[in-house]
């Protein structure tokens, strides 16, 4: 199961959070997130992989927008 770094803004250098998925979300998909008994609908607007400078491993990343 891939761990995915989730970003909210394209200029962010650090992820908003990292989470584990059964799949790698695709651009255009929606994610539902429960926060304080409220459901947020997040649209995946970008998907990429970035390389870790320390160990050279690639990490899956997505950028989301709240709808």
Structural class, judged by helices and strands?
A: mainly beta
Reading side by side through the largest sheet, how are the strands ordered? Answer: 2-1-5-4-3
C-alpha geometry:
globular
* Count of individual helical segments: 0
Low-pLDDT ranges: none
Strand content: over 45%
The share of residues in helices is under 10%
Describe the sheet with the most strands. Answer: 5 strands, mixed
- The N- to C-terminal Cα distance equals 26 Å
| Helix/strand order | EEEEE
- Would you count the extended β strands for me? 5
Q: Mean of residue pLDDT? A: 92
Q: What is the radius of gyration?
A: 12 Å
Explain the overall architecture.
By secondary structure, the chain is mainly β. It contains no helices and five strands. It has a five-stranded mixed beta sheet with strand order 2-1-5-4-3, with no helix packed on it. It is globular, with a radius of gyration of 12 Å. The model has no long low-confidence stretch (mean pLDDT 92).
What are the salient characteristics of this protein?
single chain, 67 residues, mainly beta, five-stranded mixed sheet, globular
Give the secondary structure arrangement, pairings included.
Blueprint: E1 3-7, E2 17-20, E3 30-35, E4 38-51, E5 58-66
């Amino acid at each position: 199961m891939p761990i995915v770094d989730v970003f909210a803004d394209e200029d962010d250098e650090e992820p908003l959070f990292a989470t584990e998925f059964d799949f790698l979300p695709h651009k255009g998909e929606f994610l539902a997130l429960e926060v304080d008994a409220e459901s947020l609908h997040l649209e995946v607007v970008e998907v990429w992989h970035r390389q870790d400078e320390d160990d050279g491993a690639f990490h899956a990343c997505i950028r989301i927008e709240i709808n």
